[in-house]
Amino acid sequence: NGEQPEAARVRYRIKDYTFLHQMTIDNPFIENDVVNDSTIDLNSSRGFLEPNLHSLVAFPLVVGGQWIGAIFGQSLARVSLTTDDTRQIGALIDQASTVAQNLRLIDQTQQALSETETLYAIISKLNAAQDYDTILQAVSDYTILDQADQSLVMCTFDRMFGRGQVPEWAIPISYRSRH
Hints:
Elements: E1 29-31, E2 55-63, E3 66-75, H1 83-128, H2 132-141, E4 151-157, E5 170-177
Antiparallel strand pairs: 1-2, 2-3, 4-5
């Protein structure tokens, strides 16, 4: 249906899911009967694990010797994987790992590009500023400080701050309010 399940929209703390500690970079976690496995606390795993879960597998996503994630398989029926099944799935997971890492790198590149474009826009606006109000407007436009119910005040000091010097006065030179 194209809609992400709840599990795909939240983050999970690894330490809260003790069964994940049984998986290693070289070996998947495979449990055919989670109901009778004392290492899996089904109550604390709600949201991550399906209700009425019976079988669970977790294959590590590894690229270049780095463990970047995992693919989890859950079944309401008891599923037993053979050695051949595990080997075939592992081969596919290896390829999936590379593709997943490439997508992560593309996402990181897009994020960096977006941040660079925003920084360029801010710098351009600041460099073109002819007055203090334009400087404060640029700071406001490109930061969290542009939210409602906030105000910004730009001040100068009557003397430099630092090197043992403390100014006596802060003099407002521009003000912006979003109240």
